[in-house]
Design a protein that fits this description.
Number of domains: 3
Strand order of the largest sheet: 6-7-12-10-11
CATH topology of the largest domain: Uridine Diphospho-n-acetylenolpyruvylglucosamine Reductase, domain 3
Radius of gyration: 20 Å
Distance between the termini: 39 Å
CATH class of the largest domain: Alpha Beta
Subcellular location: Cytoplasm
CATH architecture of the largest domain: 2-Layer Sandwich
Family: Belongs to the MurB family.
Order of helices and strands: EEHEEEEEHEEEEEHEEHEEHEEEHEEH
Shape: globular
Cofactor: FAD
GO molecular function: UDP-N-acetylmuramate dehydrogenase activity
Bound molecules: flavin-adenine dinucleotide
InterPro entries: FAD-bd_PCMH, FAD-bd_PCMH-like_sf, FAD-bd_PCMH_sub1, FAD-bd_PCMH_sub2, MurB, MurB_C, MurB_C_sf, Oxid_FAD_bind_N
Low-confidence stretches: none
Number of helices: 7
């Protein structure tokens, strides 16, 4: 375990908002995590595990200990039908994707360039271009922080849903993810169902071509957090019943929607925000991105309050225009625990 001298969280989350923690620690093993949770000096303080902070908004200074998860290591084994990867939770997700593509182990190409650590990927079941973590996840290894007990959860036990899993509910705060197991089938099938990938011929396309196309589209569409602070899609795509979608379609015929396996419909949150004329709308240093309305950015010196006010304005506008309530995908942290937009407004 390492103890950092700095207290500023700006370098440790992609929004780049100037907030402080009481203490920042680095955990390199599961034992480090358990030791921190059992250490007398930290026992009474709030504690939060952070990967790369790419799905986080710190709404105020954190009155406790931030634990950076840096558990490393990747092992690959093979069966007749699949490559099996066991990955330490602190590994970088995109580096893992690059490495598998370079080693001719296809399956992760659609999930290229998603920021963050491998250990965070099951929490919101990361997804892009028609693929979600649940499609390739075999298991998730956790440690119970109060007891040090190790557990292995099957993919089914993870209860994956749209940007959701058991780690946001029953296991939140009590368990840390220490490793993730992925299975990449050797009988690879390209997934080119999503717009910009539909140009490819499924018979001839390679995983590398899909990887490169995904990287190109993402670089063109999404702001790079290293240049312009952001946490990716700020809101989830709202899920409504077919009947509700049909009512909206009658009024807004160009409304993009996507039917899900369970019969409900996902609406494009970015489109809803764009239709409200909010691209480029700014509150203090926080702004709705000019090209991608679903992303709120730190245009320079944004305070957490700027982002909260902006997010609230966006939610109100979409509610008024479409009668649809947007939920934030980004996790909000108050001084001691997770919070939500409604709770942070005056
Ligand atoms: C430019 C950009 C593009 C993005 N695109 C996508 C996308 O296409 N699809 C998508 O799904 N997401 C996307 N995201 C969101 C983000 O990349 C993912 O949510 C990612 O998995 C977050 O990883 P992280 O390590 O940064 O997590 P963090 O933000 O550090 O943490 C997220 C949450 O997980 C908890 N946590 C982290 N590590 C652990 C652990 N080891 N054990 C227990 N709890 C833990 C934290 O306490 C926090 O509550 C994007 C973000 C950005 C900035």
């Amino acid at each position: 375990m390492k103890v950092l001298q700095e207290r500023s969280l700006a370098p440790f989350h992609t929004f780049g908002i100037e907030v402080q923690a009481q203490q920042i620690l680095v955990a390199e093993t599961a034992a480090d995590l358990v030791a921190i949770w059992q250490d007398e000096q930290y026992r009474t303080l709030p504690k939060l595990i952070v990967g790369q902070g790419s799905n986080l908004l710190f709404c105020e200074d954190f009155a406790g200990v931030i634990v950076l998860n840096r558990i490393a290591g990747i092992t690959v084994t093979e069966t007749e039908s699949a490559y099996l990867l066991h990955i330490g939770a602190g590994e970088d997700w995109h580096q893992l994707v690059c490495e598998t593509i370079a080693r001719n182990m296809p399956g992760l190409e659609n999930l290229a360039l998603i920021p963050g650590c491998v250990g965070s990927s099951p929490i919101q079941n990361i997804g892009a271009y028609g693929v979600e973590l649940k499609d390739i996840c075999q298991y998730v290894d956790t440690v119970e922080l109060a007891t040090g007990e190790a557990h292995r959860l099957s993919a089914q036990a993870c209860q994956f849903g749209y940007r959701d899993s058991v780690f946001k509910h029953a296991l939140k705060d009590s368990h840390a993810i220490v490793a993730v197991g992925l299975a990449l089938p050797k009988a690879w099938q390209p997934n080119i169902s999503y717009g910009p990938l539909a140009k490819f011929d499924p018979e001839t396309v390679s995983a590398k071509e899909i990887f490169e196309a995904v990287c190109q589209v993402r670089r063109a569409k999404l702001p790079d957090p290293a240049v312009l602070g952001n946490a990716g899609s700020f809101f989830k795509n709202p899920v409504v019943t077919q009947a509700r979608r049909d009512t909206l379609l009658a009024q807004f015929p160009s409304l993009p929607s996507y039917e899900m396996a369970d019969g409900s419909c996902k609406l494009a949150a970015g489109w809803l925000i764009d239709q409200c004329g909010l691209k480029g709308y700014q509150v203090g240093g926080a702004k709705v991105h000019e090209q991608q309305a679903l992303v709120l950015v730190n245009a320079g010196g944004a305070s957490a309050q700027d982002v909260l006010t902006l997010a609230s304005d966006v939610v109100c506008a979409v509610q008024q225009t479409f009668g649809v309530t947007l939920e934030h995908e980004v996790r909000f942290m108050a001084a001691g625990q997770e919070t939500y937009l409604e709770e942070m407004l005056p």
